[in-house]
Amino acid sequence: MNYSVTVLPGDGVGPEVIAEATKVLKAVEGQFGHSFDLSYGSVGGNAIDSHGTALPDETAELCENTGAILFGAVGGPKWDDPSAAVRPEDGILAIRKMLGLFANLRPVRVYPELINSSPIKPHLLEGVDMVVVRELTGGLYFATPKRRWQTSRGRRGVDTLRYTEAEIARIVRAGFELAMGRRKLLTSVDKANVLESSRLWREIADEVSADYPDVELEHVLVDNAAMQLIRNPAHFDVIVAENTFGDILTDEASVLSGSMGMLPSASLAGLPGSSGRRRRRAVSLYEPIHGTAPDIAGQGVANPIGAILSMALMLRYSFGLEDEARAVEDAVSGVLAEGYRTPDIAGDSGDIVSTTELGGVIAGRI
Ligand code: NAD
Predict the structure, then answer these.
(1) 243 with 143, same domain?
(2) How far apart are CA 247 and CA 142, in angstroms?
(3) I want to staple 13 with a disulfide (CB 3.0 to 4.6 A). Which of 48, 63, 168, 302 is the partner?
(4) Is 90 a catalytic residue?
(5) Taking the alpha carbons of 120, 124, 128, 130 in that order, is the dihedral positive or negative?
(6) Is the model's pTM score more than 0.70?
(7) Which residue range is the domain that position 188 belongs to?
(8) How do residues 32-72 score in pLDDT, each as one tens digit?
(9) Which of 27, 32, 22, 42 has the alpha carbon at shortest distance from 2?
(10) Would you call 223 a catalytic residue per the annotation?
(11) What are the CA-CA distances from residue 171 to residues 122, 168, 278 (Å)?
């Protein structure tokens, strides 16, 4: 089969880790007899430099007319001026909006070989395997009013946490759909003791649960969830949360896996199989959860595993290539078991290799 992929490496370590993900994708192509047609576009800081905008028209067009998007990361000190008219993040925010990517899936798995790379006690990490489903296009980050102003008694600022019933129902449903294929436990995170929007969230989660009698639904307040993620992370199966809560909890969860460089993500406009709610031809985006890591960019030491596992999620969710996705995930587990490490996960053991060497050994195991 032929598949088209738009590749947006971005800034900083983005191009370094995406080069390894495409290297492994080429190995999948060779082993499984598919053809992946890659089109490259500029986005973020480098697009501001070359086109004056974080998402040039030609990149937007590439994103709309493709099977899936593989994305690196955008941003960096060069474009950090808070008063700038255009910012690198505008690029990714515009793509999410344009494609209706409302569900951000972040699987968090702890590899037994890396248990000592995490600051958490090893016995707490055994069996950790969860997916955080973060709402991506609404909530506190987007609702209006959102502004700052001057009053006679000083400066003021406001953000708004607003959700519609439809927005909550579709993200909660995505959580249930995922849980159906896993351990069938859905943890809905909110702050219903304080926030009205959270009380609505909880009510709708209960209503949607009627369609999923096999899935156990539990409600956990976000502050408690933050604590339980460290105290008893193996408890969780699928977590669904509002945009801000999900953003914070997933960075916390990355500590379990030992490094920001390990974790992949998928941003979807609906889950495959979720009863007719998907856009007819949805394009999804896949990116490691980390940023551009300016402190290590250009040194050849970035961990490419988050990007490679994001590519595996693309094979699974956009192209339905489950065997191929598993082959990539098994190759990652295999090289970790053999002791290959980038510096961020080296701890006090293993063979330290460069970004390209790690990508090469993973590609070699496909
Ligand atoms: P970051 O994720 O870039 O880095 C945090 C820490 O994790 C750093 O110490 C870094 O060296 C390490 N790290 C990150 N990726 C790694 C990898 N692949 N291998 C090894 N170590 C890795 O977060 P930050 O420093 O807060 O942000 C840096 C820039 O990235 C900022 O401009 C920010 O706006 C941007 N950013 C972009 C995205 C995105 O494009 N989706 C996401 C987050 C941050």
Answers:
(1) yes
(2) 14
(3) 302
(4) no
(5) negative
(6) yes
(7) 118-257
(8) 999 999 999 999 999 999 999 999 999 999 999 999 999 99
(9) 32
(10) yes
(11) 33, 5, 12
